[in-house]
Every structure is written in C-alpha cells, then in structure tokens.
Amino acid sequence: MGFDDTGGFDDTGGFDDTGGFDDTGGFDDTGGFDDTVQRIGSDPFATPDAQRDPARRLRGRLAAPVTVWTAVDADGAAVGLTVSSVHVAEGAPAEMVGVIGPLSDLAEALGVGRRFVVHLLASDQARLAEQFAGRFPGDPFAEQAWAASAWGPTLERLGTRASCTVTGRQPLGYGLLVRGRIDGVVLGGERPGPLVHYRGRYATAAARR
Fold first, then answer.
1. CA-CA distance, 209 to 10, in Å (whole number)?
2. Does 2 reside within a domain?
3. Exposure class string for 115-129: b at 16+ Cβ within 10 A, else e
4. Is the dihedral of CA 108, 114, 115, 120 positive or negative?
5. SS in 3 state form for the chain?
6. CA dist 55 → 14, 110, 181 (Å)
7. CA-derived radius of gyration, the chain
8. Which value, to the nearest 10 degrees, does the dihedral of the CA atoms of residues 33, 38, 41, 42 take?
C-alpha cells in the first residue's frame, strides 16, 4: 500500500493547546527528521482539494502510527512495507489489524497461517519509512541491519515490534485487511517519540508533561 502523517498528545490522546501540527519544517540537510513536519512529495498536477475524495481527506486528518511490516515470501525472500492503517485489538489473544495494498509483495506473502513482524517507527526514522514505502529505488533491506527470525525479518534499529500469525484476510475498500494473532511483543524505549502520519506529512507526538 505504501503511504496511501510540534504538537504533542496528552495522556488521553488529545492534541495540546498550541493547535497541533505545524508546517514549518521537514528533513534537515543530512536526511534526518528534525521533529517538525515534512510533506511526502509534491505534485504540481495534484487534484485540487475540492475535487478529492472526501473520505480520503477525512482519513488524512486522522493522525496514524507509522509501522513497517516484514515477512518472507514463498521463495524465502524478505519483503516489507510501510503501513499506517494499523490497530491493536486487546483480547485473548490480542490481534494486530492492518490495511495494506492488495497488489503488494507483502499481501502475496501474508496468506492465512503465515507469520510476520510489525515494527513501530520513531520520529528519527522517517527515511526508513519512505524506503519501505517504495520512495527510493532498490531493496530497502539492503540499507538496514536485520536478522531472520521465526516470524520474519527483524529490523535491528527498531526496538518495539510484535510477532504475529495471520488469522484472516479480506478485501476492504481499495485495500486488503489483514488480521494477525499477536504471538509476542518486544518493547523498546520511549525516546525519541513515535513517528506519525498526518495529512500527507510526517510528524511526531509527545505526552504532555
């Protein structure tokens, strides 16, 4: 699916009193994320706002987590994709739910019973998100330190991840909804803050002190 994201969140999930996200910045000259916001590409031929799908525009106003899902395909090759339509459903067992591109290599790899890994990205990992969203040529794994696991490739830079097994999949709108049982969780540190996607931009969020 690729990608179709400093106001802070308080402990209840709301935006702070400053109005939320700014439009002042983006990546610094070294390619790193500078805790402000970056529009993902620009297109002078883009459809004017008034002519865009209102549901898509609504979705863009929902701040979404940025994750990278990884798995191995039928030939044993590593595949991965940046996914922002993600939800964790608590329960026994807990489940990971995501919407991915139905024509992606990841979708082909994630048959029922197959395993995958969901990695959470931090605010300084926007370039990695773009790599797995297909915005740079070449194999995104070639630039990452990663290791094989029983559930799929694990990206060593990403400390928080969940190991999952596919329990179901079905078409959902233009995408493919994938449900997975969460078999294990590794929690990394909370600094820096999480990378989120909002109105076509990367941003970060922090708990109100």
1. 8
2. no
3. bbbbbbbbbbbbbbb
4. positive
5. CCCCCCCCECCCCCECCCCCCCCCCCECCCCCECCCCEECCCCCCCCCHHHCCHHHHHHHCCCEECEEEEEECCCCCEEEEEECCEEEECCCCCEEEEEECCCCHHHHHCCCCCEEEEEECECCCHHHHHHHCCCCCCCHHHHCCEECCCCCCEECCCCCEEEEEEEEEEEECCEEEEEEEEEEEECCCCCCCEEEEECCEEEECCECC
6. 22, 27, 29
7. 17
8. -150
Rounded (10°) CA dihedral 112, 148, 87, 130: -120
Backbone angles phi, psi at 112, to 5 degrees: -60, 130
User: What is the tens place of the pLDDT at every residue in 176-195?
Assistant: 999 999 999 999 877 778 89
**Model confidence pTM above 0.90:** no
Which neighbouring-strand residues pair with 147? Answer: 154
pLDDT digits (tens, 9 = 90+) for 196-206: 887 777 778 76
Domain count, the chain: 1
- Structural domain harbouring 124: 65-195
HSE-up of residue 144 (Cα within 13 Å, Cβ side): 25
List the CATH number of the domain containing 157. Answer: 2.30.110.10
